[in-house]
């Protein structure tokens, strides 16, 4: 026979010992050892104390049983706490195997951090082209240029005519553009092809026209976006790419200002040591026209075209070339991006390979 007092003292002692042991566990293996030692179904110390309930004199049994159940519950909780504590440390919570619940048992409290690995959110990042465009935009904003926008599906007026590119011009060749054949059905069910042909814009210069058509001078804007040309993809060409267009029209704008703006842009973007050079060129919408190069390693690389806005363009949008002059430029975003990040093949940018994109 064991007296009640003795039995209760032993339970207190066991409780203290078990709680301390669970506390000390650092790994899932240690917790498992402690579980077997105390809560093991056959030879665990708790089980042994349960068997010894028999030795308590009858009238005192209920009190002993009550305390025993309390102990068992406390230790069960401590065990579960220890299990989750070491699991959180060792592996992602999600991979922790869940003990099967017995009937009537409540599910464990909701843990918002316990996401299965396959559904865990990964922090994304901006595409290198987007990063470059955002920085270009920031730099130009500091020079006082506002951001303008235009559609990627354009009509020949904005892509060509208003830009002084007549129908006979080779730039309008169907083989050099993505024309869209838009067939509308007429009332008779016959296709109607009389409307303007549309095309994917081949340059962001379209936005110059759109801005000037809706705004009186002065105009100081940039437009960043996609352009499309049926080029065969290689390390430096892709049928879709991005440009940054710039336009400044006001009384007395000069080519010296154009060069200053491009030089400031280049040095704010790449650092003060970068040089800018102009080479004579031709574009229908500028006169004079230049190619813009920037220093790159030991040589020069071409960044785009520029020039003084041709008077025909100003007239096309209803500006008076006697009152205002302007400069315009169009820079290739991919070139700047590739230079900035040291990327040597444009196709990498559009393969959607996460191993590549993750590096930026
Ligand atoms: N639109 C030209 C191209 O895509 C680039 C360009 C040249 C833009 C001269 C301009 C400019 O605004 O003035 O090749």
Overview of the structural elements:
With 360 residues, the protein is of the alpha+beta class. The chain folds into two domains: 4-116, no CATH class; 128-153 and 201-357, 2-Layer Sandwich (BirA Bifunctional Protein, domain 2), CATH 3.30.930.10. The protein has helices at 4-24, 28-39, 45-51, 61-90, 128-142, 156-159, 206-214, 255-270, 311-316, 333-341, 354-357, and strands spanning 146-148, 153-154, 179-180, 184-185, 191-192, 198-200, 219-228, 240-250, 276-283, 286-296, 299-309, 325-332. The strands form three sheets. The chain has a seven-stranded mixed β-sheet with strand order 1-7-8-12-11-10-9, sandwiched between helices. Strand 4 and strand 5 (191-192) form a beta hairpin. Helix 5 (128-142) packs across helix 10. The termini are far apart. 26% of the residues are buried. The mean pLDDT is 90. 3,4-dihydroxyphenylalanine is lined by residues 203, 205, 245, 283, 286, 304-307, 328-330.
Give the spatial strand order of the biggest sheet. Answer: 1-7-8-12-11-10-9
Quick one: biggest sheet?
7 strands, mixed
Shape: elongated
Helix/strand-derived class? Answer: alpha+beta
**DSSP strand tally:** 12
Which spans have pLDDT < 50 for at least 5 consecutive residues?
Answer: none
Percent of residues in helices:
25-40%
Radius of gyration: 38 Å
Q: Counting H and I runs of at least 4 residues, what is the number of helices?
A: 11
CATH topology term of the largest domain = BirA Bifunctional Protein, domain 2
Structure ligands: 3,4-dihydroxyphenylalanine
Q: Which strand-content bin applies to the residues?
A: 15-25%
Q: Spell out the helices and strands N to C.
A: HHHHHEEHEEEEHEEHEEEHEHH
CATH superfamily placement of the largest domain? Bira Bifunctional Protein, Domain 2
Top CATH class of the largest domain: Alpha Beta
Average pLDDT, rounded to a whole number, is: 90
Kindly report how far apart the N and C termini lie.
Answer: 76 Å
Return the CATH architecture of the largest domain. Answer: 2-Layer Sandwich
